[in-house]
Write a structure and sequence with these properties.
heterodimer, A: globular, B: Penicillin-binding protein 2a (Domain 2), Beta-lactamase, five-stranded antiparallel beta sheet, 22 helices
Chain lengths: 396, 622
């Protein structure tokens, strides 16, 4: 008998030797579709007055991104991720180049140069960089698996992540830069890097923060833009900070709190009267909280929990270390964005400017998340295929 | 099917399993934190956040209430409202940067005809005092300017016109000294209990009747609650509206005709008049000359205008001489001396004294006005012909008997030397000179000599250091006329709603009572009657043909400037007086020359008699 409640279904497909795409994780797909539905529904109610004359502007575009994204995800899931190992050098060069090209050609949005104009949308290369970094780091660590205990391996991996991280922070996109660092740390962690290395990294990080936030400004060197420092300190001292950043977070808390148990529906004035800034992108979770209350927020969080659980599961069942590390990287990216974004809207995390995966409106964010999920599905499909070929049962 | 450990992929080492578990643990912890936080925000604190969200979106827009009108005893409008437009600057919408602000001030200054630095100073000063209220840049601007500002709103962020109610005085300078003016409430005022409920930018009474009855005249502002978005733009229909409530209408005891007649009678000569009901203190007329147009004060008087209204050259038009004029009263004071002497037992009404035209006391000769010798006179005749010597003797005698303060005490009892308590701010007390007062001054070397008997002799005929105003004298005469009630003069009669329906009568009050024997009172009134009706009476030439029998006393005050000040105080109709009318004209000569004819003009209006002919003037010295 099956040990898991879902195993039976999976096995049924497998035993019939069904179409190859069902080798993907169906529950992960379900979570993804659920989140897309939540995103579209929330956008529909929150943005209907944002653009006069086209109440569904954001909904249609987000739906289009999601459709393209799902197709992309299914295509990638049928592609064997293992081949990416050989392309790691090229991918890394592409990663750095795509970030640099933004400095040269990028368009400026709200004082930040983060994206390049494509025919249908603005591509934020820093977002795409997240997936590229996941693949490159995983490949490099697999290559150096036997020398994992070396300090050189850890420092090389960290350097690979820090170079693009510094570049995107300079765009400035602090949020993505921190995601890069999270990806590197989690990938190293899952690969089995020694605790002592993490301890040293922690010490270095503390020193770096001290230099960036305290020492450098003291001698007049500006490493972070003032608004980035504001965001970070606004979080530490919300009462003292009543200007822009503190205001956004306060309005977000008011919106979520006002939602109560079941939400305010059409009376969601924080959202509809624009008191809540960026309510279709970074602060979409606040909209969920205001319009649908604790119930709505809990539903969305449950879908994210499902997503993370499936990611962890795929991590453990990968057919090889490369797949495990890719899954770890994608997991890091998802966890970081979910917790930092939601934490920001409820006032327990500083505002660093990351989107909520699949929920936030935006082509780059949605498509990159789907590419990452495609890789995850590919790891799943490959593991399943290998197991099937060997007659193994992989249900955990 | 059983799980077979050999089927396990080799990479799932115990180390990896542990690390995956740690990752899972971190995720679990993070979700738990988020859930607890959401529970706290949404379920436990939901109500207060919902209230905060509603505070965000709901704005109250004030709708200014018009002030109540002020009408005369017949309901004729004396003070009404007109709508004016103010230009205000709202702090929340001003640009943040100094440069952008300066640009707004510059443009605004050009439109309003003000220097930009002045605009900035005005705004900054008001915002400093009340940081969240709109600051007024200019009051009462033309509609063309407001239209221009509204059409070019993008150039004037934070600038907004506001409808305000301003005062209008349809009768020009009639009653100018009574009404006072209104102005925007000042920061210290807004904190005082007296102005509770008044909001920044509201206009309140600053002086005069407007200030005295402000709590009635002031209306209750209305408010419209509207929904706004984050930029402050209106969204949707108003949520609820509270209509503004106009202030109460104030009906004065004043009679517009009497007031006009009084001001015409003064004819711009510096002086003052009072017409008052002797029974209840209702003031039917109270004026001062020179006068001014109170419309100058609405909305706010200019600095040069204000300087002019206070200048000595223009005769200080802002001063209300009827309640602030500190004058010697001349012979009109003899009523008080007579009362004191009768009640103090110095004389009886029949006591006869010989008046040779002058007396000599302590080396100083005190003469009758015009140096006439009146011969043997008793009180009635002494009042009628205004024998100074008769009263000099009383002054001399009073100084030497008892505590020597007989006249002073009676002067105070009858209302001199202290405010009358009229419902008009700014009254002066005047001065009843006493030995102690002069001796104190002398000790402090503020005067050249101590008190002497001559001072009391001067006081007995209303000369010397005595200072009183027409209202105080009117109260003293009213007290004798009504048999001993010292009335408290009163302008306000009734509080009404805006249609004139009475809401509250403003009760007449008696300040105190004094005891005057009826036969004494009778003798004094007869003396005053004789003065206005019998041959030889000082004002007989003025009132002989007047259809209403009056009793009255002339007075000629010798002032330091050497020009005599004319006084006249009449009680009418004789023998049961209803009204007292007092008038004084600086530099007007003898009482019968200018003040008495002025009083006759006022009485003409008061009794509505046909008196179109030439008003005779007397020449009698008094």
């Amino acid at each position: 008998m099956q040990a898991t409640p879902f195993g039976a279904t999976v096995r049924d497909f497998r035993e019939r030797g069904g179409p190859r795409f069902v080798r993907i994780d169906v529950l992960l797909l379900a979570a993804v579709v659920g989140l897309v539905a939540c995103s579209l529904y929330t956008l529909a109610t929150a943005t209907q007055d944002d653009i006069a004359g086209s109440p569904n502007y954001f909904v249609y575009r987000q739906a289009a991104y999601a459709v393209v994204g799902i197709v992309l995800m299914l295509l990638i899931s049928r592609f064997d991720y293992s081949r990416l190992r050989d392309w790691k050098a090229g991918l890394y060069v592409f990663l750095i180049a795509s970030i640099l090209v933004v400095f040269a050609l990028g368009s400026v949005t709200k004082g930040a140069r983060r994206s390049i104009e494509l025919p249908f949308f603005q591509l934020q290369t820093s977002a795409l960089g997240k997936v590229l970094l996941v693949v490159v780091l995983s490949a490099v660590l697999v290559d150096r698996m036997r020398r994992l205990g070396d300090r050189e391996t850890t420092s090389r991996a960290m350097l690979l992540a820090l170079i693009p991280a510094m570049l995107v922070i300079a765009q400035p996109d602090l949020g993505s830069g921190l995601v890069y660092i999270s990806i590197a740390l989690v990938t190293l962690f899952v690969a089995g890097t020694r605790w002592t290395h993490f301890a040293v990294l922690g010490g270095l990080a503390a020193t770096a923060v001290a230099i960036v936030l305290i020492a450098a400004p003291a001698v007049g060197v500006e490493v972070l833009k003032p608004y980035q420092v504001d965001r970070l300190t606004a979080f530490v001292n919300p009462a003292e900070n009543t200007d822009e950043e503190g205001y956004q977070q306060q309005q977000s808390k008011v919106a979520i709190g006002a939602g109560g148990k079941t939400g305010r529906g059409d009376d969601a004035t924080q959202t509809k009267l624009d008191f809540l800034p960026e309510h279709h992108t970074d602060f979409i979770f606040s909209v969920v909280g205001e319009e649908f209350g604790f119930m709505g927020a809990a539903l969305v969080l449950s879908l994210f929990a499902l997503l993370i659980w499936r990611s962890l599961r795929i991590l453990t069942m990968s057919k090889d270390l490369f797949g495990t590390l890719i899954a770890a990287g994608v997991l890091a990216m998802l966890m970081h964005q979910i917790f930092v974004n939601v934490g920001m809207t409820i006032g327990i995390m500083p505002i660093t400017g990351v989107t909520l995966p699949l929920m936030s409106y935006g082509g780059s964010s949605v498509l990159v998340t789907f590419i990452a999920l495609g890789l995850l599905q590919s790891v799943h499909a490959q593991a399943r295929e290998t197991a099937f070929a060997k007659g193994r049962d992989l249900a955990l | 099917m059983y799980l077979d450990s050999r089927d396990r992929r080799p990479s799932l080492t115990p180390q990896l399993a542990m690390r995956v578990a740690i990752l899972g643990g971190i995720a679990l912890l993070a979700f738990a934190l988020i859930f607890f936080r959401l529970w706290y925000l949404q379920v436990l604190s939901g109500e207060s956040y919902r209230a905060e969200a509603n505070d965000n979106r709901v704005r109250e827009i004030k709708v200014q209430a018009p002030r109540g009108e002020i009408v005369d005893r017949e309901g004729r409008v004396l003070v009404e409202n007109r709508v004016g437009l103010s230009v205000k600057v709202s702090p929340g919408k001003l640009p943040e940067s100094d440069a952008a602000r300066d640009a707004v001030y510059r443009r605004l200054g050009r439109v309003l005809g003000m220097r930009p630095a002045r605009v900035e100073r005005k705004v900054e000063r008001q915002l400093k005092a009340l940081p969240f209220s709109a600051a007024t840049v200019k009051q009462d601007v033309g509609t063309d300017i407001v239209a221009y500002l509204l059409e070019n709103q993008d150039d004037f962020p934070g600038v907004e016109p506001e409808r305000v109610f301003l005062r209008r005085y349809p009768h020009g300078d009639v009653g100018a000294h009574l009404f006072g003016y209104t102005g925007e409430i000042s920061p210290p005022e807004i904190k005082s209990e007296r102005f509770r409920g008044v909001e920044a930018g509201d206009r309140v009474g600053k002086t005069g009747i407007e200030s005295q009855y402000d709590r009635f005249l002031r209306g209750r502002n209305g408010a419209t609650r509207v929904q706004v978005d984050a930029l402050g733009t209106l969204r949707g229909d108003p949520l609820e509206a509270r209509q503004p409530q106009q202030g109460r209408q104030l009906r004065l005891a004043l009679d517009l005709d009497v007031q006009s007649a009084g001001q015409q009678a003064l004819a711009g000569r510096p002086g003052a008049f009072v017409a008052m009901n002797v029974q209840n203190g209702e003031v039917l007329g109270l004026g001062s000359a020179p006068s001014f147009d109170p419309n100058l004060f609405s909305p706010a008087i200019s600095v040069p205008d204000y300087a002019r209204l206070n200048s000595e050259d223009a005769g200080r038009p802002l001063t209300n001489r009827a309640i602030e004029g500190a004058y010697p009263t001349g012979s009109t004071f003899k009523l008080i001396t007579a009362t004191a002497a009768l009640e103090g037992g110095l004389i009886t009404p029949e006591t006869v004294q010989y008046d040779p035209g002058s007396i000599r006391v302590g080396g100083v000769t005190f003469k009758n006005a015009g140096e006439v010798a009146h011969g043997a006179v008793a009180l009635r005749q002494a009042l009628s012909v205004s024998s100074d010597v008769y009263f000099y003797r009383l002054g001399l005698e009073a100084n030497g008997s008892g505590d020597g303060l007989l006249i002073q005490n009676w002067a105070r009892k009858l209302g001199l030397g202290r405010p009358t308590g009229i419902d008009l701010p700014g009254e002066s007390s005047g001065l009843v000179p006493t030995p102690k007062w002069r001796d104190d001054l002398y000790k402090r070397e503020l005067t050249d000599r101590p008190w002497s008997v001559g001072d009391n002799i001067n006081l007995s005929v209303g000369q010397g250091d005595l200072q009183a105003d027409p209202l105080q004298m009117a109260v003293a005469y009213a007290t004798i006329a009504n048999g001993g009630r010292v009335v408290r003069p009163r302008l306000g009669q009734r509080i009404e709603d805006s249609t004139g329906r009475p809401l509250q009568e403003l009760q007449a009050t008696t300040a105190r009572r004094v005891k005057v024997a009826p036969e004494h009172r009778q003798a004094i009134l007869e003396g005053l009657r004789a003065a206005a009706s019998e041959p030889g009476g000082t004002s007989t030439p003025v009132f002989a043909d007047f259809p209403i029998p009056i009793a009255g006393k002339t007075g000629t005050a010798e002032t330091t400037s050497g020009i005599d000040q004319s006084w006249y105080i009449a009680l009418a109709p004789y023998p049961n007086p209803r009204y007292v009318v007092a008038a004084t004209i600086e530099g007007g000569g003898f009482g019968a020359e200018t003040a008495a004819p002025a009083v006759r003009q006022i009485l003409t209006s008061l009794f509505d008699v046909d008196d179109s002919g030439e008003i005779p003037a007397g020449t009698a010295p008094d």
